[in-house]
Amino acid sequence: GEDKKDRIRSVVKTCTSLNFVLYTVTRTLLLIFGSFVLFLPSVLSDFGLSTLPAGSAYSLGCIAGISSTSRRWSSWSRRFRSRAAAAFCLQAAASAAALLWSISAGIDPRWKKAAVLGASFSWGSSFVTPFYLPPTLYALKVGKRHGTVGTLDNLFDIWGFGAMAVFNGAVATRVGGGREGWVKVFRMLVAAAVVSGACVGWAVEREGKDV
């Protein structure tokens, strides 16, 4: 009835708001960025480093990142949250660049191992907060007001998983193709993190302005 129509109108209005678009771009690009861990074994294999537990370092980074920020996020000012979210994305971009450098640089094997694991840990710890917290809290706040929490989260996921499927399909063609192909992929990941930083920083700064 009318309640269903009002809900649909509310979803349409929210989906055309600037903040929803900014958070959708953020979640989509960071989902692609984070999912690249699936290809880490292939990357390390192409560089002769298949025995390194980079995936475990990444997972530990994710746990450390979200556990250290989730408890404090709501106590931070909006401006600080905005800058922190953008900074985490820039750290993610730097982590991707550092990982590429560490696996390809001709340095002592012991330092190479430490650099790869450190970059993998930083990768996970940096992207996880802007990926989860700002978009999820936005969906909860706006969705609770209009009764559309699940709908907004699902819309984020539709765009994110759709783009991830396309990206991962393209990356899969580079598996086993040598080192040169991975350089282009890492450049795209760095760009994705930088764009995410701009979007999530702007979105957090605008909290409550168009909903």
Order of helices and strands: HHHHHHHH
Provide the gyration radius in Å.
Answer: 19 Å
Major sheet attributes: none
The separation of the N and C termini measures 23 Å
Q: Quick one: how many beta strands?
A: 0
Indicate the proportion of strand residues.
under 5%
Mean pLDDT: 86
Alpha plus pi helix count: 8
Query: What structural category characterises the helix and strand content?
Result: mainly alpha
Unreliable residue runs: none
Helix content: over 70%
Name the overall outline.
elongated
Would you summarize the structure shown here?
With 211 residues, the protein is an all-alpha fold. The chain contains eight helices and no strands. The longest helix is centred in the middle third of the chain and has 38 residues.
Overview of the structural elements:
The chain is mainly α and about 210 residues long. Helices cover about 80% and strands about 0% of the residues. The chain contains eight helices and no strands. Helix 2 packs across helix 7, helix 2 (about 20-35) runs antiparallel to helix 8 (about 180-205) and helix 6 packs parallel to helix 8 (about 180-205). The mean pLDDT is about 85.
List keywords for this structure.
211 residues
Strand-helix topology:
Layout lengths: L1 H14 L2 H18 L4 H7 L7 H17 L7 H27 L4 H38 L2 H24 L6 H27 L6
